[in-house]
Inverse folding.
């Protein structure tokens, strides 16, 4: 996972420098739902489905990328955060909860479908392999990953942080409702 690996390498570099560093751990960006082909897709029956390679009950910490900045500003204001690792999230939800929030905000029924990481890797998105690896890792390390994100502290850092439902309502028109790619030429 290049985006995880790069963060790990940067963390090691800062540790080697020996300077006071606060490490910020973000969560799944809600804006991913507006791009990368990650939004709901219409299936052959005409129904919209949101498909991720995580089980229905797997928790996914989420945050708006805009709220990361507010949390980072809160960290700079709090000297007690120096030298700490801080995990932030606006919400911790399941795939079906994401589908429901999109459904409510768009006024269109959206169901959730858990697919395999291998199936997701071949979904056609330019970042499908990286994201499938990320979701697979998240599935395998879910308790630890979620346990490192603190919604309450995130709200202390950024009182205006949005949870999933608030973000979906504010950004409903940005979430594409796509047709499935029905290319059968292979």
């Amino acid at each position: 996972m290049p985006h995880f690996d790069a963060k790990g390498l940067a963390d090691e570099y800062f540790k080697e420098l020996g300077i006071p560093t606060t490490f910020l751990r973000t969560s799944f960006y809600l804006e991913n739902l507006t791009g990368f082909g990650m939004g709901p897709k219409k299936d052959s029956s005409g129904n919209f489905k949101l498909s991720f390679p995580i089980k229905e009950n797997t928790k996914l910490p989420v945050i708006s990328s805009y709220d990361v900045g507010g949390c980072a500003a809160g960290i700079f204001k709090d000297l007690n955060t120096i030298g700490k690792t801080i995990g932030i999230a606006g919400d911790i939800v399941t795939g079906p909860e994401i589908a429901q929030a999109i459904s409510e905000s768009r006024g269109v029924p959206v169901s959730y479908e858990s697919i395999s990481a291998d199936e997701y890797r071949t979904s056609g998105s330019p970042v499908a392999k990286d994201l499938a690896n990320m979701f697979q890792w998240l599935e395998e390390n879910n308790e630890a990953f979620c346990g490192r994100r603190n919604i309450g502290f995130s709200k202390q850092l950024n009182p205006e942080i949005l949870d999933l439902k608030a973000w979906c309502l504010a950004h409903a028109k940005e979430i594409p409702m796509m047709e499935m790619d029905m290319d059968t030429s292979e």
